[in-house]
Amino acid sequence: MSMIANVSRSCLAGLIALAFALQPAAACTSLVISSADGSRFYGRTMEFAFPLDSDAIVVPRKHAFSGTAANGQKGLQWAAKYAATGLNAYNIPVLIDGMNEKGLAGGILYFPGFAKYADPATAKPDQSLAPWEFLTWALTNFATVDEVKAAINGITLIALNQPGANFIPPFHYTLHDANGGNIVVEPLDGKLVVYDNPFGVLTNDPPLPWHIQNLSNYVKLTRDDPPPLKIFGQTIKALGTGAGMLGVPGDLTPPSRFIRAVAYASSVVPPANADDAVRLTEHVMNNFDIPLGYQRGSAAPGAPMERTQWTTIADLKNARYYFKTLDYQALRQIDLRKLDLDGAGIKTFKLDKPYDIPRIDVK
Length: 363
Hints:
By secondary structure, this protein is α+β, with helices and mostly antiparallel strands. It has helices at residues 9-22, 134-141, 145-151, 208-214, 254-267, 274-286; strands at 29-34, 40-48, 56-59, 64-68, 74-79, 84-89, 92-100, 105-110, 128-129, 156-157, 171-176, 182-188, 191-196, 229-231, 234-236, 307-315, 320-325, 328-335, 347-349.
């Protein structure tokens, strides 16, 4: 069964290609927070300048997939070993963020200027995947990041244009498991490079090692307010509180968001239970929200304006996947352990449901 079965390939892929082509740089941010008992919670935001029309989907066990190879050939074939859930785009049943029943979670993040996939002409068709198919392959096949690392040499991500447009979407990928593993997978110079990621944080360009090296510029940051500074016989006190984190960058560039995400993830007090951890992760992810109008690609009239379209949180221990959208800010949940994971076909749950703000009448 094709990944994009029963969907108009040319129309939908053309929309996606147009969105990517006009998009200056998606500002997605992802991180991991741990609770006091060692449970892990993956959070990420999805920023984009055009509506993604995302839906929640559930992929059952044994669902058959067909990757994409060059010249319209079939690529890698597999059947889902594990059920998975997450969010898609444009009604295409491919996960761009999600989690499986074993607690492996992750997402596709934008990686402009650096993503370089393998040449389709030299790749083996039966090992080929399109860039947008990697996350679905990983989440439906493996329980841990170590399993992904062991299998990754058996696939090839190839440079494929989105159908209907001369554009190759630039991606890299973050993956996290319930055992404490974090990896980032980046297509560089035609090969998939896998990095262990002790920080559990990913934003966008440049490659992960650059972001980690950039942490050296912020070694003085601390959650503690500093003591007064004494110079020239004078005592200089910090203004207000929070001076320990003075210097955390607040702009929207990927390097700045990476530093800010590490600062939050490393400093928050570990929550006592899963419910508290979900709420804490939500509060942290709120710091990366982009309201419409705060960022746009250029000063030209009609330039696309990026905004946070949705935020997701994955409870890796309990296999619960949470999300909220631009128009529905209350968290919703999919509990994989309460679903029929052997059902027939991919299930889709529409997210286009706005809600009224609850009113409290005081008498």
